[in-house]
Amino acid sequence: MTRVYVSRDAAALALGADAVAAALAPHATVVRTGSRGMHWLEPLVEVETDAGRVAYGPVDAADVPGLLAAGLLTGGAHALRQGATDEIPFMARQTRLTFARCGLIDPLSLDDYRAHGGFIGLQKAIEIGAAATMDTVLKSGLRGRGGAGFPTGIKWKTTADAEGDRKYIVCNADEGDSGTFADRMLMEGDPFSLIEGMAIAGISTGATKGYVYTRSEYPHAIATFDAALDVARKAGVLGTDVFGSGHAFDIEQRVGAGAYVCGEETALLESLEGKRGQVRAKPPLPAHKGLFGCPTVVNNVITLATVPCILRDGPEAYQAIGMGRSRGTVPIQLAGNVRFGGLFEAGFGVSLGDLVNDIGGGTLSGRPVRAVQVGGPLGAYFPPSLFDTPFDYEAFAARDGLIGHGGIVVFDDTVDLAKQARFAMEFCAAESCGKCTPCRIGSTRGMETVDKIVAGTAVEANTALLRDLCHTMKFGSLCALGGFIPYPVLSALDHFPEDFRP
Amino acid sequence: MPVFEPFNADRAADIIAAHAGQEGATLPILHALQHEFGCVPTAAVPMVAQALNLSRAEVHGIVTFYHEFRRTPPGKHVLQLCRAEACQAVGGDRVAADVKARLGVDWHGTSDDGAVTLEPVFCLGLCSIGPAALLDGAPLARLNADKVAAALESAA
Known about the structure:
The complex is a heterodimer. Chain A is an alpha/beta fold.
């Protein structure tokens, strides 16, 4: 029977992919994959033809009889036919490295994973040894994709050099930023790449145990990743003798419990230890004293899952992509009120305007774009006048913004930026761990102050007070939650002052 | 639809014992208790404390720190509706207001007939197809109040 591919990613399931797969099952061999990342076309059905995969979407289960009659299984013409998947402009413009396999393969098939370049990086790491592996990661210029952008190789080296008979690799899969879903998609669509990356990190730093801390809001990612761990253990990828190398490394997944602040690395470690997810003061760095006081690498899902292709293809190939000090590719997530929402992996340097208007197709509502929030709830709101900003850590920082985990949330002209600023403070108040005063108290006072401004109470004095409060939070908070909440608030004030009038 | 057992000390002791041996066992134990009983029962708190050599106050502090852990069992169905920015950008606030009005509850509330508990959630990773929700763990997208009502009806 002809092979057809239907995603099992949570986004596809939310749009009815299971019913589509069931309707196709009597007529074809249905392979469930991750998502290609073109969420406006989900449920996407891909048919294997002599000329490669041909895409149809968005497909409703009720469309299936008509599609079959139109010759779906041979790539026949139909209103939903999108052409060869790789030639759809959204796909053709990407540089897919981290997400090369996502949407292409059965996420739990080791054969598929191997057939698409999997485990070559891990074998290379075993071959060249710990020091050369670390050197490769360092030379690639890879920086932490969780948002901080710290050079991964340096973090690994610090952990490797730290004294300790036990070391840990901790993967931060507490992807709480609104507008981001790259970690979720990768864990659902290509979980072995994360396992491979963590094993490489383990061998390179001398760590023998890995933890993946996944947020509870991702039940599908949790289930797929646990299943992948089982497969990997049975195949000897994980265990006492990784790929016959003599290195021991195993991974356990732990599930969060709805606390946004646990995405902060030290709060995450506290949570893994079974405590309240309260932030620790640094130093000591986790690389010196991390989980249970042992040297620990804490890396984001995307960072770790990118390591295998760097080892496989060499650091030069990765380093050659990007701009400035931001090397390689970044999975950009287009979200909110956007026409072509989904995941777009590209080298650093694409302009914000190209991403929103060209690749994203502008708003879903068809109204003008008024603002975009980049980098989650702690990221700045940018107006279209800043759309020439290239997607790059330093370029965003230079304009008082951040790229964070690469999420872009698009808003049309119905957005009220004073409301969004208030929400930022409200969110911070709800999620503050309570350890430091600027964040714990400042967030609530900030919410009240925005309310006063909007109500027309001493607008000028209260605006000055809000700015002063943001300054205190920015420089006085212990971590990025209280420290970065001023970004959305101040950017809303600076770029959209007209919204802060009664 | 999840079915929860009424609190049973023996069962709770078994659950705690099954997880107590692992590193940082608190969250796995609390998750397992909530999975069984629909919440972390108050009576289980001293049991967890004793098993992990913690004070009751410490365990209470942990249970109450995390939004996910409940003190009482939810209704028959749990609707986790996203409140975060990407869903706001496509009318999430309006959907939330409609759903609250229809169910006659505020956040964390359970409808009078015990059918639905409404929980706010900050992001489900379905940000390109919002407004989004999880109904008993199943993802829902591009929601409006009617779609939520239809989903609840078919789950009932």
